[in-house]
Input
Amino acid sequence: MALAPVAAQPSSENSWRTKVAEAMPLLGHRNWILVVDSAYPQQTSPGVETIETNASQLEVVRYVLGEIERSIQVRPDIYMDAELPFVPDEDAPGASAYRREIGDLMRDYPIESLPHEKIISDIDEAGKIFHVLVLKTNMTIPYSSVFIRLDCKYWSADAEKRLRAKMSAANAGQAKQ
Output
């Protein structure tokens, strides 16, 4: 059964915080939380939910990362647009200051840079089967969005690799019998 896309919801002061806090226990591995600039497009994939925060980008990123850190089940894999380092202040006043501020805020997290269109495509695909929470901010600098794919906090990629190796070895042993 296909779900209808969730429409953008206007936000009263701090209702976006309530939405994030309520959603956090339900979110898990492969869900996304996006903190996006004001021109970010509303996507139509069934699992994408968009909320207008009327808040600053840094405020929303700080809050979301705090909620993720307090969760028992998820950790953030953070992506940002590869275009951001090339956005000049002449075309987007404040771009350099934003890069410094977001860098300071996220200094303890590894960040992967990908082309904007690649990230959008990945999120569109994910939204077909996983929930994506999009938090629109009042940011007016292009390519400034922060894309957070949630991963399992209590199961690492290394643990998964070891598990798969054991399974493969067991299957190979059974095939020889």
